[in-house]
Specification:
Length: 57
């Protein structure tokens, strides 16, 4: 997954968290936080992969 898709997942998660907070839906808030964390992990993986490709490994 590329950095753009990972960032989109983070934004989607933030939106879910915000909506969950506004509607007092704890499950949606937790789901949103989970999506944000997954997106951050995917973004980090993409960055590392990109750096490895640049270094020729």
């Amino acid at each position: 997954m590329g950095k753009a898709k990972a960032k989109a997942k983070q934004v989607k998660g933030k939106l879910k968290e915000t909506v969950g907070s506004a509607t007092d839906d704890k499950d949606m808030q937790a789901e949103g936080r989970g999506e944000q964390m997954a997106g951050k992990a995917q973004e980090t993986t993409a960055k590392v992969t990109e750096q490895l490709k640049k270094s020729g490994q």
